[in-house]
Amino acid sequence: MWELYDALIEGMPEKCLVDEFICGTYGVLIRSGNGCGFSHIMPGDTLPEMMEKSLHMPLKKLAQCIKSWNFIEASVGMAAINAWYNSPAVATDNGIVLSNSQYSEDRLNDPFIAYQNVIKNKKVAVLGHFPYIEQLFQPVCDLTVIEREPAEGDYPQSAAEYILPESDFVILGCNSLIDKTLPRMLQLARNAYVVIVGPFTPLAPKLFSFGVNDLSSFVIKDNAGAAHIISGFERNAIYKTGQKVSIKP
Question: Cystine design at 30: which of 61, 83, 187, 241 (Cβ 3.0–4.6 Å)?
Answer without folding.
Answer: 83
